[in-house]
Amino acid sequence: MQPSELTQIQTVIDKIQTADWDDITEQMHQQGFALIEQVLSTELCEMLKQAYPQTELYRKTVEMQRYRFGRGEYKYFTYPLPNLIERIRHEIYPYLVPIANAWFRVLKLEHSFPSFHPEFLQQCHQQGQTLATPLILKYGQGGFNTLHQDLYGEVYFPIQLVIVLSQPNVDFSGGELVFTQQIPRAQSKAMVMQPQQGDLLIFTTQFKPEKGSQGYYRVQMKHGVSPIHQGERYSLGIIFHDAVS
Prior knowledge:
Blueprint: H1 3-17, H2 21-31, E1 33-36, H3 42-50, E2 58-63, E3 70-71, E4 73-77, H4 83-106, H5 117-126, E5 135-139, E6 144-148, E7 159-164, E8 172-174, E9 177-182, E10 189-193, E11 200-204, E12 207-212, E13 215-225, E14 228-231, E15 233-238
């Protein structure tokens, strides 16, 4: 690893540590997602994109159309993860644990997440979930991702990340991130975002709590990507739980 890359990774960690976590926490409680702008430099985004063809980095490739997941391709990284991804995964997790534990507590779910990511991975491994889940996604013109949730076994962390590696309206057009919120006995609510290159988006994996007249209830959420009109869109997904397969 080059000294310049180490310096850039430290800059990424500094941006995570100095983010306004009180505001992020409030946004997560209110809407189920929050954005930290310009976490990855253009150089780091390009480095990840250029590594896409390096087969030794990945354990599995999925053609989305084959499984009716959409149109495009994604690849799961294998362990050991690239240093940048490993550092982001471990460094940001402790900031998300209080949010996750608060959600489970108000929804009366009997689980508490440990403070540090390696301890959580041990829980995954005890349930046979030992495979890496961070992934890189590539969409061309007409590509899209259907609404879904990223659950890979009995053990899961309720929050995940995505970083768009391409620049909207330069490298591609279209390709907005879409969230749907299913409120019980009501129509679904849709929310659309277009993060810029290098922005880090934190969002719920499956649900968030909502306060009602008789206490908190669970609101199911899904996410997807709208069709790409032109160009290519790459993104990095970071999921905190490991997978069975």
